[in-house]
Design a protein that fits this description.
heterodimer; A: alpha+beta; four-stranded antiparallel beta sheet; 2 helices; B: 545 residues; mainly alpha; Cytochrome Bc1 Complex, Chain D, domain 2; 2 domains; 59% helix; 1% strand
Chain lengths: 175, 545
């Protein structure tokens, strides 16, 4: 050890080489450890949780209570996965029956900033009270800042029951 | 560029003095004899930082309340990428830290490095050891599984035995009566809010003292010029840290840390065992009984800690040459033998887990062999969508326990109570109450009691008409007079193998007017809805012989 130290002080080549080896090794090993801790940490924080895929169809209500041209707000309970919790919560959908008997269920939030909108039977339009977005019965934006038509739930009809599924992925394009 | 950097460095140094302080720290002179034997302190500090880092990451996805704690940890382990790795690092890091801290102390002890003027450095070190153990004790409860719960029950009971302060200690730990939310909050608070700053402070004091007195020299060092801490010793420290980290990382990846079932205060079969580094204490306790028990729980450990703290004042000799310190080596050896013996004894005497209730292989393996009541249970199982939270033998990672694990079934009474008020029977569970009538819950319990890995397929295989038919069968009390698969009253004819004896139309007609088709029958007529009649008939005709 002694000769090393003296060599380092006098800046002779072997000592300088050894010294630079130490420095490189210190930074190299430090970088390895940081990477081995840092990369998993980034994955842990940024990769979304593995979703529990549930084909979550819930009964929303009886479609015989619908009349064409009058949207109805149906209330139902559905399970929501929130991190480590699965909560059963009240949920609603605006359900419209069109004259051709097609049934559409809209998610109850305005596509602008998520306020709850309501149906104005007199003006036959959906009105969002927050920033006055107006939607037609087919979900299209009539006026206001809303960027896209109302989001739709996937729907199924079994007997008289309307089943509501997850949001339809194409809800952005339909209009 | 280089000139700019140097200017910047100078500017920062002039304003903050930090670069100079770092330089002074790195170019500190250390004795010529310094080397590999002194790397352990650095490794301990590094492991502490790993614990802080992984601990903070775990806390990002952890709910510190009983029940939720378990569910969130489960979420970390099963749903998050690298979550298992983070927990593995934190778990094994704790064990490793204890190993490294103890090795560090043994090194200091063997080299007599605690001698004047370094007594306070040693004493602060002993407190740091106690803090490390305190992390282990408080962190043990945080997964809130059976192991955590029962281990902590024992811990708090021991604390309660302390002379004079016992009752106060119990109150402080919130462990009055039983372990619940208060104890949990106290342990969590200690683990993440109180211990870390205390550790940081004491590490700072410890390192300050090491720097103040210098690294302890070996005899003969005064004759040789001292050397610098950087880069040679820093390299040795870094390499040691790297090796320690490599071992830790390998363990975290390769050795799975179990998460047992949710803490269950009513589980009388559970045999609690402390973490491995506390086993020797646990075994010491067993050597004393009755009124002497306090000797094992308090007096001996207390004396040991006191002795440890006072080591610099007990050993006042001048000898610091490690090869001449045979007495010190003997003490370490004896302590090592004692520790190993006690730990080994504790491991050997650990009874095998009571284990799962033996699977009843005589239980039906097929849906056709379930009784109507059990079959109706299948219907409720499906209707209540139990499957969205529970797996049934498919090794899934759902939030609730696997229902084919027969050990969790207990008995029907417990199960029905559990269905009605899950949180009352199993505190902290996130299972919602099942809204069914008593008779319906009975069916569900009857089915679950029969459920095992061999017949889990019945759940998916049983056709819907059979299940619905069984519901009609139950609703009309058919089993009051008939037997199916050995269940029911044998007043009327048994219904197994009906398809061999009767046609579908005969069975349907028979319901409307039994005595007409079976003279002398006392069976009343049944007017069922068409779908019910279809399902019931189909069910009866599907029964095996």
């Amino acid at each position: 050890m002694d000769d090393v130290r003296i060599a380092t002080e006098s800046q002779q080549t072997p000592g300088a080489t050894r010294r630079s080896f130490y420095v490189v090794a210190i930074y190299g090993l430090g970088a390895l450890i940081s990477a081995a801790l840092g990369l998993p940490a980034l994955l842990y924080l940024f990769v979304p949780p593995k979703m529990r895929r549930q084909s979550d169809w819930v009964e929303a209500g009886d479609i015989t209570q619908l009349t064409p041209g009058t949207p109805l707000e149906m209330t139902f309970r559905r399970n929501r996965v929130d991190g480590w919790k699965v909560t059963s919560e009240k949920s609603t959908a605006w359900v419209v029956k069109f004259p051709d008997n097609q049934v559409v269920a809209y998610a109850p939030q305005c596509t602008h900033l998520g306020c709850a909108y309501h149906w104005d039977q007199g003006k036959t339009e959906f009105v969002c009270p927050c920033h006055n977005s107006l939607f037609a019965m087919d979900g299209k934006v009539k006026d206001g800042p809303a960027p896209r038509p109302l989001d739709r739930y996937q729907t199924k009809i079994e007997g008289k029951q309307l089943l509501i599924g997850p949001l339809a992925s194409s809800s952005g394009q339909t209009a | 560029m280089k000139q700019r950097l140097s200017n910047l460095n100078e500017w920062v140094d002039h304003r903050t003095g930090i670069p100079t302080a770092i330089r002074q720290f790195l170019y500190e002179e250390i004795p010529a004899s310094s080397g590999w034997h002194q790397v352990l302190g650095s490794v301990a500090v590094f492991l502490f930082l790993v614990q802080a880092f992984t601990g903070a990451l775990l806390a990002f996805n952890y709910a510190p309340t009983p029940g939720d704690a378990y569910n969130s940890l489960r979420y970390i382990l099963t749903e998050l990428t690298a979550g298992r790795l983070m927990r593995g690092l934190h778990h094994w890091g704790a064990s490793m830290m204890i190993v490294v801290v103890v090795l560090h102390m043994i090194q200091v002890f063997l080299y007599g490095a605690y001698k004047k003027p370094r007594e306070t450095t040693w004493m602060v070190g002993v407190v740091l050891l106690l803090l490390t153990l305190a992390y282990g004790l408080t962190g043990y409860l945080l997964p809130w599984d059976n192991r955590a719960y029962w281990g902590t029950v024992v811990t708090t009971k021991i604390a309660a035995q302390a002379p004079l302060v016992g009752p106060y200690l119990t109150r402080l730990l919130g462990g009055e009566g039983s372990i619940g939310v208060v104890t949990f909050a106290r342990f969590f608070g200690l683990h993440v809010l109180l211990l870390p700053p205390a550790t940081l402070l004491l590490i700072a004091v410890h390192i300050h003292l090491v720097r103040k007195h210098g690294v302890a020299p070996a005899p003969g060092d005064e004759l040789i010029p001292a050397k610098k801490f950087y880069p040679e010793q820093v390299f040795k420290d870094t390499l040691a840290i790297f090796v320690a980290f490599a071992i830790l990382f390998t363990m975290a990846v390769a050795v799975r840390v179990p998460l047992e079932q949710l803490a269950d205060p009513s589980d009388t079969a559970y045999i609690p065992r402390p973490e491995w580094y506390f086993l020797f204490l646990f075994q010491t306790l067993k050597l004393f009984s009755g009124s002497l028990e306090v000797v094992g729980t308090m007096v001996l450990p207390g004396l040991a800690v006191l002795t440890l703290i006072l080591v610099p004042f007990i050993d006042r000799g001048q000898m610091v040459k490690v090869t001449r310190r045979t007495f010190a080596a003997g003490v370490v050896l004896l302590a090592g033998i004692g520790w190993t013996g006690l730990t080994a004894a504790a491991v050997i005497t650990t009874p095998k887990e009571a284990g799962e209730v033996a699977v009843d292989y005589s239980a039906p393996t097929d849906w056709m062999q379930l009784s109507p009541e059990e079959m109706a249970g299948v219907a409720y199982f499906r209707r209540e969508n139990c499957i969205s939270c529970h797996s049934v033998g498919d090794g899934g990672s759902k939030i609730g326990p696997d229902l084919t694990r027969t050990a969790i079934h207990r008995n029907a009474a417990w199960m029905i109570q559990h269905f009605k008020t899950p949180a009352g029977v199993r505190p902290g569970t996130s299972m919602p109450p099942i809204q069914l009538s008593d008779a319906q819950l009975n069916s569900l319990a009857a089915f679950l009691l029969k459920l095992n890995p061999n017949n889990a397929t019945a759940l998916s295989d049983a056709p819907d008409f059979v299940v619905q038919g069984a519901l009609v069968y139950q609703a009309n009390g058919c089993s009051d007079c008939h037997q199916v698969n050995g269940g029911g009253v044998a007043l009327g004819p048994g219904l197994n193998g009906l398809s061999k004896r009767r046609s579908r139309s005969w069975v349907e007609d028979h319901f409307l007017d039994p005595p007409k088709l079976s003279p002398g029958s006392i069976m009343p007529p049944y007017r069922l809805k068409q779908t019910d009649l279809d399902n019931l008939t189909a069910y009866l005709l599907a029964l095996p012989e």
